[in-house]
Amino acid sequence: MATPQQQALQHLRRLLATSGADPAEIAATYLAVISEQLIEFARLSYRRDGAGLIEMDLRGMDLRTARGQAPIIYYPADSESDEWPLNLDEVLNAYDPTCEAVVLLFQDGSGPQIFILE
């Protein structure tokens, strides 16, 4: 039986092989594939910097052809950016940093998306 990450990887491969696949679905599935690594990164960062969020900026990247690493940065909750959605403070006040991670995903063609990973 495949783990959720293995299932997400299989789905991502299908999406990447489909020329008309929705970039938002590709990005969300990519997050599912690397969710364990993101959660571990968030836990380590939480211990060092306190509650916060992971920002992934995929603007200008096509995950079908990308090589290397996506820009992934941890920001403490008291950080601010004009690009962040107004409701982000509410999300950061409501999540449990001991078992969840907040990911703010930027990509071309849409506003930032907020994901809560467990």
Q: Note the beta-strand portion.
A: 15-25%
Integer average pLDDT: 90
Give a quick account of the main beta sheet: strands, pairing sense, barrel closure: 4 strands, mixed
Structural class computed from helices and strand pairing:
alpha+beta
Major β-sheet strand ordering: 2-1-3-4
Unreliable spans are: none
- Determine the number of helices (DSSP H or I, runs of at least 4 residues): 4
Q: Fraction of residues in helices? A: 25-40%
Radius of gyration: 14 Å
Kindly report how far apart the N and C termini lie: 21 Å
What does this 3D model show about the protein?
39% of the residues lie in helices and 19% in strands. With 118 residues, it is α+β, with helices and mostly antiparallel strands. It has a domain at 37-117. The chain has a four-stranded mixed beta sheet. Helix 1 packs antiparallel against helix 2 (23-33).
Layout: helices, strands, pairs:
Elements: H1 4-16, H2 23-33, H3 35-49, E1 52-57, E2 72-76, H4 88-94, E3 101-106, E4 113-117
Helix pairs in contact: 1-2
